[in-house]
C-alpha cells in the first residue's frame, strides 16, 4: 500500500471512531444514560452454505418503547446505523462489495433482511418486521435497488450518491436489468462526481425520474462540496447534513402512521434550514435537487420550492 493510500485509510478509520464515539456506539456495552449499544452478529446466507457477519446497533429501550423499525445499512455507513440508533431505530450493518460478484452482494443484503424478519436476534421482541429500511452507498445502491422491490417488510430506502434505474445481470437474468421502484426512495448525492475535480453537470437524476414516473415518493438532494467519498469519510458536520435528510425520510415512511407525525417529517425534509444552515447554501448550484411527494409536492428544482409547506 502506498503512503498516500495508507494515510487515507488511517484518516477514514480515525473519523469513523470519532463518529461512533459521538453517537455513543463505541463498544458492545453502554454506560447508564448512553444512547445506543452495538454488538457483532452472524446469520446464515439465504443462497449459500455459509454465514454472514455484521453488527447490530440498538437504541436505548428505556427511552424508546414498543417494536422499533430496523434499517439494514451498508457497513461503509456504520455512522448512519449509529446515528439512527440514537433516534430509536435498530440498525444492522453488513459489508456489500462486488468483489465476489453482483449476485453474492445481493445475497448479503437479502440475508440481512431475512435475519431481521426471522426473529433470530436477541432483540427480536423489539424488532418490527413490517418496517424495514435500506441504506446503501456507491455500488451498494444497485444491490439495494434489487432488494427493495422484493417486499419482505422493506418500506423505504436511502441511497448515497446515486439512485439507479438499471442494474447488472443477476439471478440468471441476461444483460442489464431495469429497476422496478416499489418503495419510497431518497438519494443524497455529491456534486463532484468521484472527486474528479470538475463539478458534474450531467443529469444525476435518472433514478429520480424513474421513481417519479412510477408515482413513488422520491427525492434527489445534491449537496454542495460533497465528493463520492464524503459519505464514508466526511466531516461530522457534513454527515449531520446527510443524517438530517435520512432520518426525516425514514421517520416519514417507516415511522408512526399518525398523520401529524408524517406531516412533521415531511416539513423537516423541506425545512429552510438544516443544522442551522440555510438549505439554499447547502444545495449544489450545478446539479438540481428535486422532490416528488405525491399529492404534496412535485418539483424539478428544489431551490424554487424552498419555503413551501406540504
Describe this structure in words.
The chain is of the alpha/beta class and 310 residues long. The chain has 9 helices and 14 strands. The chain has helices at 3-22, 78-85, 102-118, 140-148, 206-213, 230-233, 236-253, 259-269, 279-282, and strands at residues 36-44, 51-59, 68-74, 90-94, 127-137, 154-160, 166-167, 177-178, 185-192, 218-227, 273-274, 277-278, 290-293, 297-299. A 10-stranded mixed β-sheet has the order 1-2-4-3-5-6-9-10-13-14, with helices on both faces. A two-stranded antiparallel ribbon has the order 7-8. A two-stranded antiparallel ribbon has the order 11-12. Helix 3 crosses helix 4 (140-148) and helix 7 (236-253) packs antiparallel against helix 8. The termini are far apart. The model is unreliable at 1-34 (pLDDT under 50).
Mean pLDDT: 83
Number of helices: 9
Largest sheet: 10 strands, mixed
Helix content: 25-40%
Distance linking N and C termini: 51 Å
Spatial order of strands in the largest sheet: 1-2-4-3-5-6-9-10-13-14
Topology order in helix (H) and strand (E) letters? HEEEHEHEHEEEEHEHHHEEHEE
Basic shape = globular
Broad structural category: alpha/beta
Write the layout of secondary structure elements.
Layout: H1 3-22, E1 36-44, E2 51-59, E3 68-74, H2 78-85, E4 90-94, H3 102-118, E5 127-137, H4 140-148, E6 154-160, E7 166-167, E8 177-178, E9 185-192, H5 206-213, E10 218-227, H6 230-233, H7 236-253, H8 259-269, E11 273-274, E12 277-278, H9 279-282, E13 290-293, E14 297-299
Parallel strand pairs: 3-4, 3-5, 5-6, 6-9, 9-10
Antiparallel strand pairs: 1-2, 2-4, 7-8, 10-13, 11-12, 13-14
Helix pairs in contact: 3-4, 7-8
